[in-house]
Design a protein that fits this description.
The structure is a homotrimer of 138-residue chains. Chain A is α/β, with parallel strands linked by helices. Chain A is 48% helix and 19% strand.
Chain lengths: 138, 138, 138
């Protein structure tokens, strides 16, 4: 029998939407899920070395609540979402993919991306890896 | 044979994205689906008693169309999304969960939430309940 | 054995989120997936004849990067997302549905929509078509 699998198309680049990516990846990996993350568009920009140096942004719809939530997370010493992804990779079977089409749009090379990226693939390859499991678009 | 199942991670807090949560939950429950809703981040804030008293907000990207759509919904006497969730719970097997991590971020207790919340659970428990069905991130 | 199936609830109306709809539909159709697109809310507005004449908008959260990305896509002569959907329909088994409830909210008729729309259906019918495959909410 095939094991449990969670795949996420990480499209968004605001920190409020990247937090659940880290939390879901880490929770699923700890529960024995195979996890596949496919970073594309603004999500891919967020894991470029340049994007990772930028000030994290909260979705404009939730700006007022956002600063309060970020403050609370720091008080609670809650880990950054990138740290959650890195830790998930140590705990379980977690693969991180970068979208080849977006790399071309942004003119990025693999060495411009976070070190936790395993591979640069196209959408058909990602769909193949995700097949038969739960897939989310975030 | 296992029955049909629809699970939704309710992340967003704008009324335009909460409407489809109500519509999907109610349509799926009426069609005999087991439905699981997991409210987190801005979605959880939207079902806190304080959030429910606030003026509903439409996503800033669609502000102009938003007021027109809200007006049409009132003219049509379309039910509020929270009412759709409550009605879905009467019609079918619908469970509403609140995300424990977000409760901690916001300093919320179960009694601060809408009455249709069944339980406060972590992400691993939710993934377990959702396993084998269709899962959406809204 | 049932074949592979990808279904997308197309809720969003900004061009950055509609691009992946086109890319996913086209990649999946070329890989032999059955594809179902269900346009609702701002996504449905985007495929109304009036919406298709409007200037494409990028999500306000990514405005600065957006203009750069749109420029790159034009330089690369990347096809418009609507063209990707139309081409996907020629290549594979791709069905495009419009949400009946949203049609009513917006006061739209089938002849007001893009020509690639196959049918106007409700949420229960869509869930039925999507059953047993991968379903995304974009």
């Amino acid at each position: 029998m095939a094991g449990k699998k969670l795949s996420i198309i990480v499209f968004s680049g605001t920190v409020d939407k990247l937090m659940p990516v880290g939390i879901l990846a880490s929770g699923a990996a700890a529960s024995g899920y195979e996890v596949n993350l496919f970073f594309t568009f603004w999500g891919l920009n967020a894991i470029s070395k340049r994007g990772m140096q930028a000030q994290p942004q909260v979705d404009k719809n939730y700006e007022q609540m956002g600063s309060m939530m970020m403050k609370r997370m720091m008080e609670m010493k809650f880990p950054m979402w990138t740290q959650l992804v890195s830790e998930a990779k140590e705990v379980g079977e977690v693969k991180v993919y970068a979208c080849s089409t977006t790399m071309e749009f942004f003119g990025l090379k693999k060495e411009d991306l976070a070190e936790f990226v395993d591979d640069v693939v196209g959408v058909a390859t990602f769909l193949d890896r995700a097949e038969g499991g739960t897939t989310l678009f975030i």
